[in-house]
Amino acid sequence: MPADAPTILASSGGIASGRRTRFRFTALTDFAVELSGVTGRSPRVCLLATAMGDDKAVLHYLTEAAQDRGFLPSHLSLFPMPTVDDITGHLLEQDVVWVFGGSVAGLLAMWRLHGVDTALRAAWQAGVVLTGISAGSICWHVGGTTDSFGPQLRPVTNGLGLVPYANGVHYDSEDQRRPLLHRLIGDGVLPSAYATDDGAGVLYRGTQFAEAISENDTAAAYFIDKLDGGVVETQLDTRRL
After folding, report:
1. Residue 1 has what pLDDT?
2. pTM given for the model
């Protein structure tokens, strides 16, 4: 059962260190699964670790975490070649597509090379819920701030643009994120943006912001806009999951 509208949950959370496994999925990922509307069977979740170069150990740990959560996992790898013949068909069979962090610049390049960008758009339009953390949050937007090029953050401006905003991740834990995002918006390099502290997410239904949510008691989300020649940041009402 697909979501009742194109749905994106962009976050700086949804995964954490596990107790008996390397990773464990957390409340934001559970919420993404809930948004898919699946009932009566295990949720089908496709894991993408393109931003980590499809590292086999990472994919193993993600698959392990998904199985532990009761999901039916699959993965789409692009190195050394795509693991499925029909990428669009595979993604359309999923309830949720979950994208891991890493190099958002590398992720976008590889997705476009293999047509994953158009496949994801088709899945999104069909009601498959798109979610993820960090690079897996920025990718759905026009762009954001990234360490894809080195420790000094730089802009990325060629995101998929499924929603017409920029995105800021790890807003409370990495001190370069806030000032650079403000500057890029002020200079017109990026459009208005939604940003998330670690443990927070923003939900879009269609191309419109629907709500901010959090999986801990301290994480918040923000809207940053250019106004009257300056940049204004507004902390959003954030619902605790």
Report:
1. 57
2. 0.97
